[in-house]
Write a structure and sequence with these properties.
The structure is a single chain. Helix content is 54%, strand content 12%. It is an alpha/beta fold. It has a five-stranded parallel sheet, sandwiched between helices. The longest helix is centred in the C-terminal third of the chain and has 23 residues, at 140-162.
Amino acid sequence: MTKRIITISREFGSGGRFIGEEVAKKLGIAYYDKNIINEIAEKSGLSPEYIQENAELSPKKGLFAYAFAGRDVTGKSVEDLVYEAQRKVILELAEKESCVIIGRNADYILKDRDDVLNVFIHGDMPVKIQRISQIYHVSEKVAAKMIEDTDKRRMTNYNFYTEQKWGKASNYTLCLNTSQLGYDRCEKIIMECLE
């Protein structure tokens, strides 16, 4: 297999993280998700806890507040520093080895490489609600709110840093609906695209 990078962007509750992990295992390649948080923290000088909360999600205030909040004299915010550190880590990982990278705007960060398969995983709301409510042991109403909040924050972060629209099919090589296709078929389709 030639060196390949698979980026997986996903809606909360769609199973994108699980699919990415399974694909990496089956291909015998590295899997990066929360395990890159320490590297990002090291490069940015911020705590791993702060990175965990802020590296992929926008602040809860919305895009306008995101664009203007906490900027220093150079015009950079703490979020900008986190994004720049995250960008460096992702570029280094892609240079180093074949891997699966979950979220973190990796599809955009690696857009100039021709050995990247960018995947967007989404699902039908009732199925996502059921999955989140089972995983986190919350009511369906709470699960729906968690999905809405998380996806809104992912979208705001993505749209702000990439100037593209999160979830828009033309930004990805492949868009898969796990509610319609199932996890196994999604994994197979991703692996077939590498052949």
